[in-house]
Amino acid sequence: MKVGFIGLGIMGSAMANNLLKDGIKLNIYNRSKQKINELATDNFEFFDNPKLVAQNSDIIFLMLSNDEACENVVNSKNGLLEGLENGKIVVNFSTVSASYSQNLYDKVKNKNALFLEAPVVGSKIPAQNAQLIILCAGDKKAYETVNPYFKKLSKRVFYLDNIPNASYLKIVNNQVMGITMQALAEGLQLAKKLNLDLNVVLDLLNSGAFANSMFELKGKNILSNNYEAHFPYEHMQKDLGFAVKLAEDKKAFCPALSIVNETYKKGLANYSKIDMCAIYEALNS
Amino acid sequence: MKVGFIGLGIMGSAMANNLLKDGIKLNIYNRSKQKINELATDNFEFFDNPKLVAQNSDIIFLMLSNDEACENVVNSKNGLLEGLENGKIVVNFSTVSASYSQNLYDKVKNKNALFLEAPVVGSKIPAQNAQLIILCAGDKKAYETVNPYFKKLSKRVFYLDNIPNASYLKIVNNQVMGITMQALAEGLQLAKKLNLDLNVVLDLLNSGAFANSMFELKGKNILSNNYEAHFPYEHMQKDLGFAVKLAEDKKAFCPALSIVNETYKKGLANYSKIDMCAIYEALNS
Amino acid sequence: MKVGFIGLGIMGSAMANNLLKDGIKLNIYNRSKQKINELATDNFEFFDNPKLVAQNSDIIFLMLSNDEACENVVNSKNGLLEGLENGKIVVNFSTVSASYSQNLYDKVKNKNALFLEAPVVGSKIPAQNAQLIILCAGDKKAYETVNPYFKKLSKRVFYLDNIPNASYLKIVNNQVMGITMQALAEGLQLAKKLNLDLNVVLDLLNSGAFANSMFELKGKNILSNNYEAHFPYEHMQKDLGFAVKLAEDKKAFCPALSIVNETYKKGLANYSKIDMCAIYEALNS
Amino acid sequence: MKVGFIGLGIMGSAMANNLLKDGIKLNIYNRSKQKINELATDNFEFFDNPKLVAQNSDIIFLMLSNDEACENVVNSKNGLLEGLENGKIVVNFSTVSASYSQNLYDKVKNKNALFLEAPVVGSKIPAQNAQLIILCAGDKKAYETVNPYFKKLSKRVFYLDNIPNASYLKIVNNQVMGITMQALAEGLQLAKKLNLDLNVVLDLLNSGAFANSMFELKGKNILSNNYEAHFPYEHMQKDLGFAVKLAEDKKAFCPALSIVNETYKKGLANYSKIDMCAIYEALNS
User: Fold this and answer.
1) Residues of A numbered 112-141 whose beta carbons fall under 8 angstroms of chain C's beta carbons: which are they?
2) Which residues does residue B29 pair with via DSSP β-bridges, in sequence order?
3) Which residue numbers delimit the 6-phosphogluconate dehydrogenase NADP-binding domain (chains A, B, C, D) (predicted)?
């Protein structure tokens, strides 16, 4: 199996490195070529466009930031679609809207190629440590072919039958995460205005029934003013926006989701590239 | 030390039992006398009013449902205040508004008695297992006197200096809990409308960075339609309401808190006495 | 000019009648033929499908309830598209999503026909009284051709250049209307819980700086429990949902819009077909 | 009748001037004496404290900014209470919380004096033009005594029996106003992001069923970036906060109120002293 990998952002480079370290040769494309300097081995070939990656690979992994970035890679001159043919498998790790994932599936299928959506749960550190959770939907055979590679990247894989179930589940997961994150941020903001010692507040929150490792990590980072991006603020907002649109389409009553998404939107101008826990700052400024 | 205990609700009876099991004799008052049938030993005396409990005890513990219930016990004919005198210690485990806790402190102090606010974190099961977390503020000496009893009820005690710091911290804790609970409920509601398998959704939520024991327990209960009250819905709403008022007084920007409180209010008519995880039902009905 | 008219709902039948009363012969299609009994004159021909209306008309007006209804009429077997040809003008009075309006424009243009989006402001009574406000965007020449008919239906016409500007403006208008409506409903609900005389409350609201005819009419209807549909609840929610999606796409911070839309969604199961002022009931139940 | 007037802010000075212009002599106190330069005639006496005003007057009008300002004037050394005696009438035009109004009533009654709450609807211009609406509750006899003065200040008076009904009604009025104001502001913000011509948007909003003079005035001011305070932003927020607390006490479901209050809170740091229509800016920054 010849393996392609497109997208060397925070997540993509960590995932590509885990494949490289396992001895898998990668055919790589990234918008900016410099990112190859961050790769763990030199067992890769860099191509000038997605079409060439597709032509030279049996499986092509994509890890891109949003619908637009995917569309640019897939459906432009020298894009992925031009290099597809019967039997190749496209695996999209990117979190995209459910409707776009369906759309991608249709485009790939038109080329007689196979498509899996495979959004991942987990940010920078789990990606580096091959501790992601992969949510996969699409052709079962293709899934079985790709699964050995998934195992090199993750601690767990969910197979969810039809597209866009994996997108749906990823969006629900991040809906819950975003609201939970804001719960912590609002609690800390109110605590600050009440002149409570925020370290004591965190200590308590980390001791009770809803203690969790995100509160522990993000709480510490907020208190030390450390907003290095593990999961960028703008991606958190993007995913909340996907959830808002799904809730609209399905007429689900999701008031907290709606208002957390609004709050995230409010801070986009100032915090988009730093970590999503900067919602703490967005509440305050 | 003679010990009084007033209030035998879900929490109070569990806590009183832990003291009784430890061999401590209790002077007890409860609005409805029948509740003594649930006590673990007969090493107690039941009194007909709070005044008598106060007169016969050095330390009086209160565990009541809200400001009004406390005021009725403390400040009515044959109420607690009438039985207080120099040196007695009143310990209020109830979660009340910060302003009422201050008010109680003033009233008790007027009788030359000592007052500790000591709201607890944890619901029915931790209360039964002496695994509560106690948040205590007020006179340091009184705290040191009472602390041995706290240890029989809890896994951890925070001492927070002045009143109403413990009330503040409890309210912040429950603010975060309430929003986090709604995060789960909204996620499950959207997932249901997306025809996802809710067991799979829970499995995922219990595997990621924000997995926590509340999600695990409440998620399972929601899916099995089990709303037996561990922490009653109306108490969750009451605490969210306290947080909303503090956020108003301190001008803290807490949009998710506000909207979660509204959502809880919406369901009061139908769900007040069952578990707070019935917010899942409130979103749907 | 031969004129077609498709859609005889609350709005469509009122508008068609104003054209009929002005002596204009109409080629009519409606899903349910019975609705022709409500027409003001018999100067019309009923056709069995939209294609036939298109073939027999130079201008075809559409007044349908949503994107799906439009798509059914336009783009199905014996649908409108099949009857279009060079020079015919399609005018869509329906309020649809901005993206669908763009999509309709593309489809009609593919047939070398012309397309105007022309959502209307005003509900049942203004429609009956030819007092609508028409918001029109699209080909200027087509607009000039159709404008004489617009004048028979409206007190005012805004021409807004390119599609989907008219859809945008209509959605913004209804965004403001929906929030304003909920402002009234929440005020009355709180007033009721405060035991104020709701007639006095309305009297005051109708006397101050923000007094408006919607408050006057809807307030009176709410107090008399009259929810006959002038502007159906489900259409109000649909338009709020359009606004939410636009706000998401443009990253506009619209917290009140989001939460009003959620509130409207909450009531869909019970109030969808009655008047949008039933939001007062939705807040309470 | 000797008349006192305490508080010469935006509203108070306009109201005092209408009494002065009518030939009524006023006994005046204001925190800053300079404000007397803005008075319309010199038919007044300035006193150094509220006690002296009370001692020298039969009726004392108060127009102050909030609960705290009232408490300072009424209940401090040389405060109003010290100068009250049997039969004097205190009329509070200030908008205060319902609970504080009740509290003021009790304090005044303890001095055997009479108390009316009389919050006004209308801002700077109606105050200047004696076009306010006065909402009055309290002792009926006192109301009849004071009513001739009310008529010199207002276009309309509502008498509402018992305290705090007038406070309640004023708070409901401003709840509806605040949400309606935000409806406009959010509509204009979304319209701007959609590149619509905001003058056209306003033109439309001023033509439809919910057209109102507040939209007309505030819309024009927003578009011309004119935020001179007619009704200060911080007072709008204060009143929304009062409504939020009432809704909490009465368990009224008011999601739009809650979220509009949050939005107003968010802007307090930047916009508190300018006009409440600066909520448009608060949404954007």
Assistant:
1) none
2) B6
3) 2-159
Strand C114-117 versus strand C132-138 pairing type: antiparallel
ipTM: 0.95
Q: What is the dihedral of CA B1, B6, B12, B16, to 10 degrees?
A: 30
Q: CA–CA separation, A13 vs A19, rounded Å?
A: 10
Burial call C65-74: b when 16+ CB within 10 Å, e when fewer:
bbbebbbebb
Q: B75 near B46, Cβ under 8 Å? A: no
Q: Under CATH, which number does the domain A3-162 receive?
A: 3.40.50.720
> How is residue D253 written in tokens?
């479901």
Dist. CA B136–CA B140, nearest whole Å: 10
DSSP C37: G
What does the DSSP assignment read for A199-243?
HHHHHHHTTSTT--HHHHHHHHHHHTT----SSBHHHHHHHHHHH
pTM of the model: 0.95
Architecture of domain B3-163: 3-Layer(aba) Sandwich (3.40)
List the subunits that have 3+ CB pairs under 8 angstroms with A.
B, C, D
Taking alpha carbons only, the member of A64, A87, C259 closest to residue B263 is: C259
CATH class for the domain made up of C168-284 = mainly alpha
pLDDT one digit per residue (tens) for chain B, 285 residues: 999 999 999 999 999 999 999 999 999 999 999 999 999 999 999 999 999 999 999 999 999 999 999 999 999 999 999 999 999 999 999 999 999 999 999 999 999 999 999 999 999 999 999 999 999 999 999 999 999 999 999 999 999 999 999 999 999 999 999 999 999 999 999 999 999 999 999 999 999 999 999 999 999 999 999 999 999 999 999 999 999 999 999 999 999 999 999 999 999 999 999 999 999 999 987
Please say whether the beta carbons of C159 and C165 come within 8 A: no
Residue ranges of B 206-245 with Cβ closer than 8 A to chain D: 241, 244-245
- State the catalytic residue, choosing from B88, B111, B170, B218: B170
Q: Is the peptide bond before A164 cis (omega within 30 degrees of 0)?
A: yes
Test A256 with B247 for CB contact under 8 angstroms. no
> DSSP 3-state assignment of C6?
strand
CB B222 within 8 A of CB B188: yes
Do the domains spanning A3-162 and A168-284 agree at the CATH topology level?
Answer: no
Q: How far apart are CA A170 and CA A101, in angstroms?
A: 12
Q: Is pLDDT of C264 > 90?
A: yes
Percent of chain D with pLDDT over 90: 99
Q: Chain A window 56-95: which residues touch C at a Cβ cutoff of 8 Å?
A: none
Alpha helices in chain C (DSSP H): 10-21, 50-55, 67-74, 80-83, 98-110, 124-128, 140-151, 165-193, 198-205, 213-223, 233-250, 255-271, 279-284
C44 and C27 Cβ atoms separated by less than 8 Å: yes
Between chains, do D258 and B254 touch, taking CB under 8 Å as contact?
no
Q: Where are the beta strands (DSSP E) in A141-205?
A: 154-159
Q: Per-residue pLDDT tens for C17-30? A: 999 999 999 999 99
* 3 state SS of B244: helix
What are the backbone dihedrals phi and psi of residue D161, each rounded to the nearest 5 degrees, phi first? 65, -120
Q: Which residues share a beta bridge with C160? A: none
In the annotation, is A109 catalytic? Answer: no
**Cα angle, residue B188 at apex, residues B185 and B191 outer, rounded to 5°:** 150
Give the Å distances, CA to CA, from B143 to B149, B158, C156. Answer: 10, 11, 75
User: Which pLDDT score, from 0 to 100, does residue C285 have?
Assistant: 72
Where along chain B do its domains lie? 3-163, 168-284
d(CA B103, CA B249) in angstroms, rounded, equals 17
Among A107, A111, A170, A238, which one carries the catalytic annotation? A170
d(CA A138, CA A158): 12
C-alpha distance from C153 to closest chain D C-alpha (Å): 15
